[in-house]
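Shape is hard to put into words, and the shape of a protein is harder than most. The fold becomes a row of whole numbers, each drawn from a learned catalogue of backbone shapes. The outcome of that step, for a single protein, is printed below.
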Amino acid sequence: MKDAIVPSSIDPQSNPANTSLPHDKELVLRVIPMPADVNANGDIFGGWVMAQVDLAGSVIPARHMGGRFATVAVNQFQFKQPVKVGDLLSFYGTIVRIGNTSITVQVEVWAERQRPHYQCVKVTEATLTYVAIDEQGRPRPVPRPAPT
């Protein structure tokens, strides 16, 4: 299966790819979808996944913005695999770009599945842009760290 991986706690001999969850990205959210989140086909609603990606993506800018900010764009969003009830979803984020008033973040979503056998697959990836805003909702500069 494309993008199939196993975490390091699983016997690497059981997976010829001998890979693990991302280590070069920050884990920003973990969640388990429930039966209330399914569509008519029994998969998790794409809109539910999109909302979780927006929440996960906002964790990193929240640390840098120094105040209010808003999602200004979903630059790219790709569903790679369906999400199932009971999947343990791990959301990993990385900064793609810091602009004058915005931060762009890439989010990858990985599902750990137990049935029919343990597997871990990338189910979604997206790129979102968040803009720093003032109390009137107008763009404001992203604070820059002081030089060391």
